[in-house]
């Protein structure tokens, strides 16, 4: 069981992630915005951050930066709708430079989400 911070402005996605990862036995904290998540990162310790990138006003890159500042070794997984115009390899390479452990595309595939979270926790 891992303590996971989930950040996504879409309530449907948050609830779906909660259903999937809670069933796997993880302890989840759900946030609807980057500022909310960053505030929580400063007071709680997490094993993994799962964040959307595109959110209103503040984006997931701010969450990643805060996570990297506070715990450089903590796995960060992006859950985002990757634009079809951007090659997946290019996106993955750019995210890797930010210290992102995994990238999962929306819409959420429950089996893939569960396995990618486990892989990120194991490999760091």
Summed up:
The chain is an alpha/beta fold. The protein is built from five helices and five strands; from the N terminus they run E-H-E-H-E-H-E-H-E-H. Helix 1 links the parallel strand 1 and strand 2.
What does this structure look like?
By secondary structure, the protein is α/β, with parallel strands linked by helices. It has a single domain (3-123), classed as Rossmann fold, CATH 3.40.50.2300. 47% of the residues lie in helices and 19% in strands. The chain has five helices and five strands. A five-stranded parallel β-sheet has the order 2-1-3-4-5, with helices on both faces. Helix 3 links the parallel strand 3 (48-51) and strand 4 (76-80). Helix 1 (11-23) packs across helix 5 and helix 2 (34-43) packs parallel to helix 3 (60-70). The chain starts with a strand and ends with a helix. 30% of the residues are buried.
* Beta strand %: 15-25%
Number of strands: 5
User: What fold name goes in the CATH topology slot?
Assistant: Rossmann fold
- Largest sheet composition: 5 strands, parallel
- What's the architecture in CATH terms? 3-Layer(aba) Sandwich
pLDDT < 50 stretches: none
> Any idea of the CATH class?
Alpha Beta
Q: Span from first to last CA?
A: 15 Å
């Amino acid at each position: 069981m891992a303590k996971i911070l989930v950040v996504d402005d879409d309530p449907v996605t948050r609830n779906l992630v909660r259903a999937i990862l809670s069933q796997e036995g993880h302890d989840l904290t759900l946030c609807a915005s980057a500022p909310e998540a960053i505030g929580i990162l400063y007071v709680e310790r997490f094993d993994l951050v799962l964040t959307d990138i595109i959110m209103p006003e503040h984006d997931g890159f701010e969450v990643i930066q805060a996570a990297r500042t506070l715990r450089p070794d903590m796995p960060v997984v992006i859950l985002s709708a990757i634009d079809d115009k951007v090659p997946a390899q290019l996106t993955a390479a750019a995210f890797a430079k930010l210290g992102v452990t995994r990238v999962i595309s929306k819409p959420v595939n429950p089996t893939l989400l569960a396995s990618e979270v486990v892989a990120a926790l194991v490999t760091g």
